[in-house]
Design a protein that fits this description.
The structure is a single chain. This protein has 283 residues and is α/β, with parallel strands linked by helices. Among the domains are: 132 residues, 3-Layer(aba) Sandwich (Rossmann fold); 37 residues, no CATH class. It is built from twelve helices and ten strands. The strands form two sheets. A six-stranded mixed β-sheet has the order 6-7-8-3-9-10, sandwiched between helices. A four-stranded antiparallel β-sheet has the order 2-1-4-5, with helices on one face. Strand 7, helix 7 and strand 8 form a beta-alpha-beta unit. Helix 4 packs across helix 6. It is globular. The relative contact order is 0.14. The model has no long low-confidence stretch (mean pLDDT 92).
Length: 283
């Protein structure tokens, strides 16, 4: 699977007093499975970009290509686009509405015209992929589930449509620490088992550092940086100028470096930082 954006521009309320440019010449390519984290200050264009890739918004100008096929020119087949690219909005559990978890997860495939004898298999697989027990939850009301389980059930509804690309907007927002960890583990497992492209937006720099193979930094509707987590978070001053920060481990590492002679670290996770401290102590 290959996703390519070429010079995407989008303006909200064009030719109106309140018009605002959300995307301003965005170009990038994602070719092959992996996890891409997207960061940026509020209003930088992150969520707007995801909605373009799913066909929810058509650009003011520019093009999007999915496996070489332009989805922005002429008449767009949105059903085909959404078969390939699934989008999970922030707080997706607010969109649960069916009487049972299984019925809710089946809603998407039904609307895509999937045959009824295939839907149950898809529902079972999707529920299990997100780390829930199918037999335990299939007949429960989704509103009986915990917050983290509700979110996983909502994500299962998108997974059941078997997209080749999954986009997640703030997937850990508002969760308690245990549910937060569960969602991170779920994202890793989904990418590994389904070998898909996952793009996710987050304000949590530790999540970005832990999950991402690649990080795209957006600022004022443009791509400001694009690289591995280590490359991006090495640019501390540039990130600060854009209103962004390092992961907690990176911040702690810098503070320790200022206090301990000859201590150096590029740690992005607490485990990495602990290892660097241990090696420093052992001399």
């Amino acid at each position: 699977m290959r996703i390519e954006a070429r010079n995407l521009k989008y303006t909200y309320s064009p030719d109106m007093p309140g018009s605002a440019t959300a995307l301003d010449g965005v170009s990038f390519c994602v070719d092959g499975a992996g996890i891409v984290g997207i960061i940026g200050h509020t209003g930088s264009g992150k969520s707007t970009l995801l909605q373009h890739l799913n066909g929810l918004i058509a650009p003011t100008s520019g093009d999007i290509f999915i496996d070489g096929e332009c989805i922005t020119g002429g008449k767009r087949n949105l059903t085909d686009i959404r078969r390939k690219i699934g989008l999970v909005f922030q707080y997706p559990e607010y969109q649960l509405f069916e009487e049972s978890v299984a019925a809710d997860v089946a809603f998407g495939p039904k609307n895509l015209g999937v045959k009824s004898d295939e839907i149950e298999d898809r529902v079972r697989r999707a529920i299990e992929v997100v780390g829930l027990d199918y037999e335990d939850v299939k007949d429960k009301s989704p509103f009986e589930l915990s917050g983290g389980m509700k979110r996983r059930a909502a994500i299962a509804g998108v997974i059941a449509m078997e997209p080749e690309v999954l986009m997640l907007d703030e997937p850990t927002a508002g969760l308690d620490p245990a549910a937060h960890r569960d969602i991170l583990a779920m994202i890793k497992r989904m990418q590994r088992e389904m070998e898909m492209i996952i793009l996710f937006v987050s304000h949590n720099m530790a999540d970005i550092a832990e999950l991402s193979d690649r990080v795209i930094v957006m600022s004022e509707g443009k791509i400001a940086m694009d690289g591995t987590p280590r490359e991006v978070f090495a640019e501390r001053e540039r990130l600060t100028e854009m209103g962004l920060s390092l992961p907690l481990a990176g911040k702690l590492g810098l503070e320790i470096s200022e206090r301990l002679k000859d201590f150096a670290t590029e740690a992005l996770s607490i485990d990495e930082l602990a290892g660097d401290i241990e090696r420093y102590i052992k001399g």
